[in-house]
């Protein structure tokens, strides 16, 4: 072997697949709870998780019907994260739901929820919400591809309480996880 060949750096081919395990971050729904706290305002509310025909992931469906028209609706929203038994309040907000869809939210999760409500439901973008009308969402899901890939596996809880004139009328609670699926 010549001195020149010994001093010349060797070209090494590194296969990235050997270094980094490919994965995909998946947001999963696990459980949903709907509560009617005021039968004088809300006639009925139903919610469920069903398996999507194509993706096979659980998607959210809900339906509600009002006894009275609503012109003043406030949502109190809280998102909790649970990583290895440590629970953190990740986000909390209060918003006028009648103007909810006019806002450009700084917090990306709330922005994603608003966009998905627009896509999957017949909820109007402004008040009043009509009485004796069936509002619903079908196949509500959150696109996990929009989450940063460095997020760890964790469980989450989402709590939304809807109030009319400071009286809670509906509670909507969704539970799930964020997991890595190896490809």
Features:
disordered N terminus; Immunoglobulin-like; 3 helices; 5-stranded antiparallel sheet
Provide a compact summary of the structure.
This protein is mainly β and 183 residues long. It has helices at residues 3-7, 16-19, 108-120, and strands at residues 23-36, 42-51, 58-66, 74-83, 86-96, 134-140, 154-164, 167-182.
Question: Can you describe what's shown?
Answer:
By secondary structure, the chain is mainly beta. The protein has one domain (21-144, 152-182): Immunoglobulin-like (Sandwich). Helices cover 12% and strands 48% of the residues. The chain is built from 3 helices and 8 strands, in the order H-H-E-E-E-E-E-H-E-E-E. Strand 2 and strand 3 form a beta hairpin. Mean pLDDT is 88; it is low at 2-9 and 12-20.
> Which architecture per CATH?
Sandwich
The portion of residues forming beta strands comes to: over 45%
Unreliable runs? 2-9, 12-20
CATH topology: Immunoglobulin-like
Strand order of the largest sheet: 1-8-7-4-5
Alpha carbon gap, first and last residue: 43 Å
The proportion of residues forming helix, as a percent range, comes to 10-25%
DSSP, total strands: 8
Number of domains: 1
Name of the level-1 CATH class:
Mainly Beta
The ordered string of helix (H) and strand (E) elements is HHEEEEEHEEE
Number of helices: 3
Overall shape: it is globular
Return the average pLDDT rounded to an integer: 88
Q: What is Rg?
A: 23 Å
By secondary-structure content and strand pairing, the structural class works out as mainly beta
């Amino acid at each position: 072997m010549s001195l020149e060949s010994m001093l010349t750096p060797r070209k090494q081919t590194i296969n990235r697949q050997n270094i980094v395990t490919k994965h995909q971050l998946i947001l999963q729904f696990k459980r949903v709870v709907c509560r009617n706290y005021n039968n004088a305002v809300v006639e009925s509310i139903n919610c469920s998780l069903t398996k999507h025909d194509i993706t096979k992931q659980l998607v959210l469906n809900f339906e509600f019907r009002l006894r009275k028209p609503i012109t003043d609706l406030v949502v109190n929203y809280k998102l909790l994260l649970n990583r290895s038994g440590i629970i953190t309040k990740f986000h909390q907000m209060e918003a006028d739901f009648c103007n909810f869809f006019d806002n450009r939210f700084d917090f990306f999760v709330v922005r994603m929820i608003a966009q998905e409500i627009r896509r999957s439901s017949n909820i109007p973008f402004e008040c009043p919400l009509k009485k004796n009308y069936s509002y619903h969402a079908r196949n509500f899901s959150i696109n996990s591809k929009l989450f940063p890939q460095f997020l760890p596996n964790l469980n989450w809880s989402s709590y939304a309480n809807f109030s009319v004139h400071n009286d809670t009328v509906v509670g909507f609670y969704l539970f799930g996880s964020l997991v890595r699926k190896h490809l």
